[in-house]
Amino acid sequence: MKKPLALMLSAAFMVSLAACGSGGSLEDTLVSEDWQAVMDYSLTPEHTIVFREDGTGTMTSSNGSGGDIVWETSDGSTVNVEYSTDKTVKNYTFEYTNEADSIRLTDHGQHMIFVPAENYESETEAVKAEMLESAQALDWESAYQIKLDNEAKFQEEYVGQIWKWTARIFEIGDGYCKMANEASSLGGANNAIYVYMSNSDLANLHNGDEITVVGI
What distance in Å separates the CA atoms of residue 174 and residue 136, rounded to the nearest whole number? Predict the structure, then answer.
């Protein structure tokens, strides 16, 4: 059963863009907005960042988990964030861009994009369009064989790239679905990929659906 194209944006899946941040310093812009993840490869489910004037803040998810941040800016366009919980400490480097119709904080290494919450819907659509334009078609059978034979080559050629892949859904969970091109001898998924997307998107899917996903 064919389904419409679904984009695998790990944070979430969409009013007009406000001219926030136009006037004032980068610090003022950060503090004046709540920043919501449009694409969030390393943190699921959906995350929001709140920056405070004293250089602290929070990064929280839609399920209530999260931690504290300490932040500072440099070069007028870079935001360094240290995120910590009682279990982990992570560091992110965001590039701030303010173009005519787009305001973003992007960590290119972590594939994370945060935008002002009021721009979330329009920016999500923009990121989807950008990913669709640059996505490569994924031959998962070939990619999986490379992974088995040479993990270093797999990391170099596949990880962090944008791919478009069509497959069948075998399981739907909280924040993810398990997809594969074929079933195993026992009827389960053979060489499955866990595809992360928002629960609002997942609610429209069913086991056995064939869908196309685009993502990292």
Answer: 27
Instruction: List the structure tokens of 114.
Output: 């945060």
The size of the chain, in residues, is 216
DSSP 8-class letter at 2: B
- What gap in Å lies between CA 44 and CA 35, rounded to an integer? 15
Report pTM: 0.71
Task: Give how far Cα 174 sits from Cα of 45, 171, 194, Å.
Answer: 9, 10, 11
φ/ψ (deg, to 5) at 72: -155, 155
For 201, phi then psi, to 5°, come to: -75, -45
pLDDT in tens, 119-159: 998 998 898 899 899 999 999 999 999 999 999 999 999 99
pLDDT in tens, 180-197: 999 988 888 999 999 988
Q: How far apart are CA 114 and CA 104, in angstroms?
A: 6
If residue 73 lies in a helix (H) or strand (E), which one and from where to where? strand 66-74
